[in-house]
Amino acid sequence: MHSHLHTPYNANCEEIMTALDECHARGFIQKALGACNDIKRDVNKCLAAERYQRAKRNRDQARENRKKIERIWADEKVLEEGGPAAAVAASAAGGAAAGEK
Questions:
Q1: Does the pLDDT value for residue 90 go beyond 60?
Q2: InterPro entries per the record (predicted)?
Q3: Distance between CA atoms of 16 and 44, rounded to whole angstroms?
């Protein structure tokens, strides 16, 4: 058995799911004889497509988040190693020391 189908995540499949509900409401004989099977296959296809799109959006968002984190890590590594600001300060101090001699 699956979870509740009528959710905001499956809004694009609402029409097909309603048709399946109506088919099932016609009675047990309809379900037992397979009269609703084609509609059920359509529901499954629609839900699979929705799930695929949702997973793709999540993957893309995760990749973007990972890029941001890696940029932050790279910036922190530069700062830990002395970074450009430290290099500029060191060269300025070195130049001043050379001028004093």
A1: no
A2: Cyt_c_biogenesis_Cmc1-like
A3: 10
Question: Rounded to an integer, what distance in angstroms lies between the CA atom of residue 70 and that of residue 76?
Answer: 10
Pair 70, 32: CB distance under 8 Å:
no
Tens digits of per-residue pLDDT, 8-67?
777 888 899 999 999 999 998 888 889 999 999 999 999 999 999 999 999 999 999 999
Domain count along the chain: 1
* Tokens representing residue 50 in the block: 């929705």
1 inside domain: no
Q: Which residue has the tokens 């399946």?
A: 20
Q: Residue 84 domain-assigned? A: yes
CA angle, 27 then 32 then 39, to 5°: 80
- Domain assignment of residue 32, given as a range: 8-100
